[in-house]
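ok so i was messing around last nite and threw this chain in just to see what happens. nothing serious, just curious
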Amino acid sequence: MFTDFTKLPRAGEAVTELIRMSRDEPVPNRYIDRLQAGELTMDGVMGLVGVTHKCHPAEITGFASVMARFPTRSNTEFLANMIHLINRAGPKLDRVIAAVGLDEQILAHWPQDPRAWEVASFWGRMALLGTAAQAALALYWDMANYFPDSDRMLDLLAVSGLPVPAEFTWYYSGGQSDELERQALLVVEEGIAAGESADDTVFAARQMQEAIGGYWEAAARSRPPTVRPPSGRPARGI
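result:
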């Protein structure tokens, strides 16, 4: 997690406030909770893949829209890099989808839990209404929370006894980047310095964190898909 705020004091104050909020009103990770309690099954593994599948199109669209609306040099560099990161992850996710026995027809409407769409909904709002600083701090806070939780999830899955495919572990491992986080905070710093509301920026990042909480919870509470694949054969359970 990039925390060198020497040249980014305004962004640093925003992050400090987010840390305080997380301490005082933590957003639980129900996926980790169920793993620690020994309650997660392979339905939850499949569910995480299904929820992740909802995010990519919305993230790419949201990032591109905010970049087009605020084409400053820093914002363009940062969001172009984020779009490249998500786009490059697409083929990797396709392999995970196949490895857990899912397909596009099933994933179109599953998981049905509304929380499965919270991250996608957030980026839909950002695309239309968000500012560059709001989107950047939301992405910084997303990375600062999501990647450590993913690492913790993989550690717990490794000792859970669940037959998790290697493709799943490969997809959800790594990803944290000090450079991308620095680029995000530079956009935040420039935006607040130019007059953007620091409070609104923090509020957007906190919404992002809550959406990630919904992402994990929807995955943890997934039930086996009931949609049949194109062949007419029942979807394979694991």
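not much to say yet. Confidence is low (pLDDT under 50) at residues 228-238.
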